[in-house]
Design brief:
single chain, 6 strands, Alpha-Beta Plaits, alpha+beta, 21% strand, 2 domains, Arc Repressor Mutant, subunit A, 4-stranded antiparallel sheet, 162 residues
């Protein structure tokens, strides 16, 4: 189990590492690593391989918003029933049950602010269990999935020579 956690943490940090590289890092054989990865995929432990892209640098940055949602939980299903409905929308990139004043936090992606606002007002807010929403537009992403998205600017000051 300890080696499983070690392998998964390595893959979570960099899914591009080869089984040979992971074997070197863990002390297992390359064949053992290949079998473990296949097992993780079959058991849905590894759900997806993902690339973190700095869309700002590409010039096509989508708009993201965090939407806090107050819901009325269903008897015998709690928050799961409404969460299952919300997570099916293609605009929803992440969905979390949270503590505090609101119950769910939804990460929404759209092409522009109007698209995100339309999603909230036309699809999310009208759901039966939804009692209220608060939308927080993300103005700038600094770090995502543990990756810093901007390079430190080089100093523009001229060096002073003796």
């Amino acid at each position: 189990m300890e080696k499983d956690n070690e392998i998964l943490k390595i893959l979570e940090k960099d899914a591009r590492l080869t089984p040979a590289q992971i074997a070197t890092m863990t002390g297992l054989t390359e064949e053992d690593i290949k079998k473990k990865i296949k097992e993780y995929e079959e058991k849905n432990i590894i759900r997806k391989y993902k690339t973190v892209i700095n869309w700002e640098r590409v010039g096509e940055e989508p708009v993201f918003a965090l939407v806090d949602v107050k819901v009325a939980p269903q008897r015998d299903r709690g928050y799961d029933a409404v969460a299952e409905r919300i997570m099916r929308f293609s605009e929803v990139k992440a969905l979390y049950l949270i503590s505090g004043t609101y119950d769910l936090s939804v990460l929404v992606e759209g092409g522009d602010m109007k698209e995100v606002a339309s999603f909230v007002s036309e699809k999310l807010a009208p759901l039966d269990q939804v009692q209220g929403t608060v939308t927080h537009f993300i103005m700038k992403r600094y770090k995502e999935d543990g990756v810093i998205l901007f390079d430190k600017e080089e100093s523009r000051r001229l060096a002073i020579s003796p």
